[in-house]
Write a structure and sequence with these properties.
Blueprint lengths: L1 E5 L2 E4 L4 E8 L7 E7 L6 E7 L5 E3 L7 E5 L5 E6 L8 E8 L15 E2 L3 E6 L1
Parallel strand pairs: 2-11
Antiparallel strand pairs: 1-3, 3-8, 4-5, 4-9, 5-6, 7-8, 9-10, 9-11
Length: about 120
């Protein structure tokens, strides 16, 4: 499985960005595609998840009301729409695919088998 993340960049506080994660290669009957982020000197943290079958979505408390995860029109692609961005959202954002993740584990990095290369998001104040 290959994951290609795109859409990062530099934006002012209050602005918006949309990240995309395109999955290719081996297919699974059901899986989660999720976003994590890692700021300098910090642990990689969960941001959002989408269950491909059924479309259930999950968001970290820190981004609720500002971020939305959804399936894109393109095959096996997930978008993360980020609005009202804050300087504390600055991080490298990674998409990940977990074929064995379940609701109780989807916020954990260990639930994911495949990771994309990361895309930088910088929010200036």
């Amino acid at each position: 499985v290959q994951l290609q993340a795109s859409g990062g960049g530099l934006v002012q506080a209050g602005g918006s960005l949309r990240l995309s994660c395109a999955a290719s290669g081996r297919t699974f009957s059901n899986y989660y595609i999720s976003w994590f982020r890692q700021a300098p000197g910090k642990e990689r943290e969960f941001v959002s998840a989408l269950r491909w079958s059924g479309g259930s979505t999950y968001l970290a408390d820190s981004v609720k009301g500002r971020f939305t995860i959804s399936r894109a029109n393109a095959r096996n692609t997930v978008n993360l729409q980020m609005n009202s961005l804050k300087p504390e959202d600055t991080a490298v954002y990674y998409c990940a695919l977990g074929s064995r993740a379940i609701v109780s584990t989807l916020r954990s990095k260990s639930a994911y088998d495949y990771w994309g290369q990361g895309t930088q998001v910088t929010v200036s104040s």
